[in-house]
């Protein structure tokens, strides 16, 4: 370990490649390099697991570690700082926070928004990867897939690293694998009896910017009719519904043990009954859904959406039908859907909506 610290402290770093001094092992087309990602937040409530650190992510961690050591930090402190600065950096953080809020994880954690996991509430989360150290595939970032469970070289890294972390982390920590390959890793860990299936939230799209269309549809920021042929909306909807139900189940488990939370649930139910006295409806006049009655679409986080345009930045979140009525009176449209399916919500203009008490 001392030799490794000396190497990290003294090597010259280039942005586009990992130093040969940090190469740990190789097998066929795969090469593994060391990067300072071994810090584990032993009190985490949620664990977000990616595929493997990419070159850019590893470079951020290495540079942060070097800077920390130069400032006089101890090795363990420098590792913690590096992990915080580089985990799911860039647009991935915004995408992750948006998806986690959508499935209700902020409610489970009792925080306002999951963007706080990258800031004020970073003590709630542990970031990791199925392959803890950067693995390159023929010199390029490894993109995951079934090979993580079928290739012995990769599987041994995933098994040994995650087995250690599962043993250290709290027994009620919730794991969120990102991507189908990482899903397969956790299914294998479950089959081996290393973790309970109740603790794993399967189905979240990978947070990469390259996955933006799937993420937008997952969070109901893009309509089904606007999707490209590369995106399968049925699969996304199925996984999305499953995740929302799983998180709701976790919240219910917590509330069962928390009398204060249970009281809040009673208050929310009373508010719902008050809202139910008002009806806001839109009757579809033509097309396949002619005759269907649409009502304000409530997201998994409990919010309704009103907006004067179709642009995301103009959207306003409201919590009750009474609030929606106030925005309707000011010319705002409302995102509405068929309550029987809750699919494909669409923005309906005030002129097409009827309101009754």
Low-pLDDT sequence parts: 260-276
How many domains?
A: 2
Strand content: 15-25%
Strand count, sense and closure of the main sheet?
7 strands, antiparallel
The radius of gyration is: 23 Å
Overall mean pLDDT: 86
The total beta strand count reads 14
Descriptive account of the structure:
By secondary structure, this protein is of the alpha+beta class. It has 2 domains: 2-257, no CATH class; 277-356, no CATH class. It has 12 helices and 14 strands. The chain has helices at residues 2-10, 55-70, 75-86, 91-102, 105-109, 147-150, 152-168, 180-191, 212-218, 233-257, 259-276, 321-329; strands spanning 23-27, 30-33, 46-50, 125-129, 135-137, 140-141, 174-177, 279-283, 293-296, 304-307, 316-318, 333-337, 346-348, 354-356. Strands 8, 9, 10, 11, 12, 13 and 14 form a 7-stranded antiparallel β-sheet that branches. The protein has a 4-stranded antiparallel β-sheet with strand order 1-2-5-6, with no helix packed on it. It has a 3-stranded parallel β-sheet with strand order 4-3-7. A hairpin with a 2-residue loop joins β5 and β6. α2 runs antiparallel to α3 and α10 (233-257) crosses α11 (259-276). The radius of gyration is 23 Å and the shape is elongated. The model is unreliable at 260-276 (pLDDT under 50).
